[in-house]
Specification:
mainly alpha; globular; 64% helix
């Protein structure tokens, strides 16, 4: 599959993939790894990012890596989020407030609260952006860690990008869905429901890369040489 893409298109799509997965990186390195790819050098800050990602998803070996990658590609909490969204979206604002108040002591209250906060921001209730962004990011890591061959990593990234383009129409829509998905994942794991600035947020605010080099509707099919 990879050989079907010419060099120019590969470079353009790799930039696109780096922008898509920059949502997964917090802080200054988010922008650095938009310009540069992970390589095989043992640079300490790169190793730190890889270590953090593997710890987040309980990745210890090739088996756990592939298991998490498939789960993120196929689910990534999106089914549960959509179910809660469907429960709340049919209610009026007043009824929704009363419903949440009545469920304060329920075990899924925190999850309901996150979904309620995103009702108007994400009318579709589709947080696929979160899992699919991590598929791309982990594919970058997986190749460096020798969990994936280069061809496999490319196929995962193409598939994730294809699904993202089918679900969202712009970088802004994608970022909203990712942010809500990230928040939902954090509260589910017992973390604080805080949102942290990511590499993509900085690109949207301070850079022309998304509009000049990595436009949303990238052609994902091989182009003629």
């Amino acid at each position: 599959m990879l050989k079907e893409y010419n060099v120019k298109q590969r470079k353009r799509l790799e930039m696109y993939f780096r922008c898509l997965s920059s949502t997964c990186i917090r802080g200054l390195l988010g922008r650095y790894y938009v310009v540069y790819e992970f390589d095989f050098s043992n640079v300490f800050f790169k190793r730190g990012l890889i270590k953090n990602a593997c710890e987040r998803w309980n990745i210890e070996d090739a088996n756990s890596f592939h298991r998490q990658l498939r789960w993120l590609l196929e689910d990534g909490n999106r089914a549960e989020y959509r179910s809660l969204h469907a429960r709340l979206a049919t209610l009026s604002e007043t009824s929704r407030s009363k419903y949440l108040e009545a469920h304060k002591d329920h075990e899924d209250f925190v999850n309901l609260k996150v979904v309620a906060q995103g009702i108007h921001q994400l009318p579709s209730g589709d947080i696929s952006a979160f899992g699919l962004a991590w598929v791309i990011y982990l594919s970058r890591i997986g190749y460096v860690e020798d969990y994936l061959k280069k061809e496999e990593a490319w196929e995962y990234k193409i598939e994730a990008a294809r699904q993202l383009q089918e679900r969202y129409s712009s970088w802004a829509d994608y970022y909203i869905a990712y942010s809500l998905g990230s928040k939902f994942s954090l509260v589910q794991s017992g973390g604080l429901d805080n949102l942290f600035e990511t590499g993509l947020q900085k690109l949207m605010r301070n850079s022309s890369i998304l509009y000049r080099e990595a436009v949303w509707g990238q052609n994902l099919q091989p182009e003629a040489t």
